[in-house]
Amino acid sequence: MKKYSLLIFSMMVMFAANAQFTITSSSERLLLSDQQYNIDAIALFNSIPPDAELNYTGGGNFMWSYTIAGETYTSTQMSVMPENGVLYTIMINGVATYYVYVIDYSLYPVTCSGVTVDADNPDVCVVTDIDVAVNPTDITYTDRNGNVRSLQRSFYVAYTTAGWDAANSTWVDSAVTVSIPIAGNHVRVQVPAILQDGLVAAYGDNFAVDMGLPIDTCYADFYATAVQAHPTGTVIERDAKNEKDRSSQTAIQGSAPLVVQLKANPNPLSNVFVEWFIWNINDSNAFLRFADETVNYTFEETGDYKAKVVVRNDKCSYTETLNIKTLESFIEVPNVFTPNDDGINDEFRVAYKSIKEYHIWIYNRWGRLVYKSTDPAKGWDGRINGKPASVGTYYYIINAYGEDTNDKGKRVHYKLSGDCNLLR
After folding, report:
1. What is the chain's alpha carbon radius of gyration, rounded to the nearest angstrom?
2. pTM higher than 0.90 for the full model?
């Protein structure tokens, strides 16, 4: 266990209860004015120098009243020289109205003697336990009712975990700082499982940090155990512009054969094992298994699929499932095209999706075959033997099969014929 002294600089913010009090001092100081203390203000000094003053900035017929070593003193000056452990009362028109207690913070040290992470934690896959051993001195004060109370001191626990950046599909460092009240000689906190190796730091207390004082800091090396994954599925698009629904921005789906790149994206640990399981939802027992973080898989058949990733190590495991859909087959034939090289509708191309087998024949009005193809992504450019075909009506015959099946379990069959006009 290493122990360091860490100096944190911060801009001091001055508070004033009801804008009635200020502090002037050559040393670091704070003025606490939250009503949780049941007092108008608590003035903390990091040692009280000779030039320190506690100032009343209000109006009215007022008088300071305070007791030191059993002797009661009064003053009508706007400022008094503060002393440690003294309650200062402002009397307005003879009535005790405001109360300010002075504390010399340097007399109440706190040190950090060690940090322990995940000792005997049965839930390391879900949460991380952090225990900080401290040696605080109780800081007491007297409230407006004469009750002796303690100031709540806190320590800070800081660490860096792995955070998922969904916009860029990557893990990034995510710094976390937690303020924990000191209870006895320990600061204990349970945080969401830390997802990467690193250091856990504990430092404080809160008053030293707020005053910009040198603070005592403990460090502990941490080796992450919890695993997590943010799997993604990206459709690898084909170039054919006439293929419909090649991919979707909102779901992992598209025209079959659908090529999907599956990435497990586990949190950045060195000792994780990744498995993918892929199956059609109609037959969950017939699954495929891949022991890789990244898998490129082609979904041939139309239907709904699941792709489950399992990430694990010797203590923890994590499972996430993606839904994947290949769409039903479809063919739509144009009734006109204009091969005039203007970049718009220059070829006779069918619109299609999820087509497994395809044949097309195109004939002119005299029954001459002018074009044939077995690739729905390709089209006729309106040329015959390299020369522009005549404007007019042409006839097509299409025989194709989809990647899907009909109610009888046979592939969807397309037998289409018709005419199309060539215009220039």
Report:
1. 38
2. no
The H-assigned helical ranges of 212-311 are none
Distance, in Å, from the CA atom of 178 to the CA atom of 8, rounded to the nearest integer, reads 16
Task: Report the C-alpha gap between 352 and 78 in whole angstroms.
Answer: 88
The predicted-structure confidence for 23-73, as pLDDT tens digits, reads as follows 999 999 998 887 788 999 999 999 999 999 999 988 889 999 999 999 999
With contact defined as beta carbons under 8 Å apart, do 132 and 187 qualify?
yes
What is the distance between the alpha carbons of residues 294 and 122, in angstroms, rounded to a whole number? Answer: 31
Structure token pair of residue 286: 């017939």
Q: What is the layout of strands, in order, in the sheet containing 232-235? A: 232-235, 258-263, 294-299
Q: Tokens representing 136?
A: 């605080």
Is the bond leading into 231 cis (omega within 30 degrees of zero)? no
Q: Is the peptide bond before 419 cis (omega within 30 degrees of 0)?
A: no
Asked if 309 contacts 229 with a C-beta cutoff of 8 angstroms, the reply is yes
- Reported for 382-386, long-range contacts at CB under 8 A and 24+ positions apart, including other chains, are 382/337, 382/339, 382/346, 382/347, 382/348, 382/422, 383/339
Nearest residue to 187 (alpha-carbon basis) of 209, 157, 161, 163: 157
What is the C-alpha to C-alpha distance for residues 89 and 97, in angstroms, rounded to an integer? Answer: 7
Tell me the C-alpha to C-alpha distance, in Å, between residue 56 and each of 91, 115, 142: 11, 43, 19
Query: Could you tell me if 172 and 165 are in contact, meaning their C-beta atoms sit under 8 angstroms apart?
Result: yes
pLDDT, tens only, 213-262: 989 899 999 999 999 999 999 999 888 888 888 777 778 999 999 999 99
